């Protein structure tokens, strides 16, 4: 396998993805709808986070 300088660095690409997901998560946490809670739960699972945020959806009105 050759080191092609044009090939993306997988670690850098994953770090960029994680940063984007965390930024989206922070925004979703301020919304508080059941859909936002579901998205936060998916982000938590993707990033293997367990900080207790978005554990349950707010009651629907």
Describe this protein's structure:
The structure is a single chain. The protein has 61 residues and is mainly α. Helix content is 59%, strand content 0%. The chain is built from two helices and no strands. Helix 1 packs antiparallel against helix 2 (34-47). It is elongated. 8% of the residues are buried. The model has no long low-confidence stretch (mean pLDDT 84).
Tags for this model:
single chain, 61 residues, mainly alpha, 2 helices, 59% helix
Helix count from the secondary structure assignment: 2
Distance between the termini: 57 Å
Mean pLDDT: 84
Note the beta-strand portion.
Answer: under 5%
Class derived from helix and strand content: mainly alpha
Q: Which regions have little confidence, pLDDT < 50, spanning 5+ residues?
A: none
SSE arrangement:
Layout: H1 10-31, H2 34-47
Give a quick precis of the structure.
With 61 residues, the protein is mainly α. It is built from 2 helices and no strands.
């Amino acid at each position: 396998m050759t080191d092609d300088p044009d090939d993306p660095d997988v670690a850098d690409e994953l770090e960029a993805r994680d940063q984007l997901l965390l930024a989206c998560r922070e925004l979703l946490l301020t919304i508080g709808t059941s859909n936002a809670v579901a998205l936060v739960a998916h982000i938590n699972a993707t990033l293997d986070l367990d900080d207790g945020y978005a554990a349950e959806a707010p009651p629907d009105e």
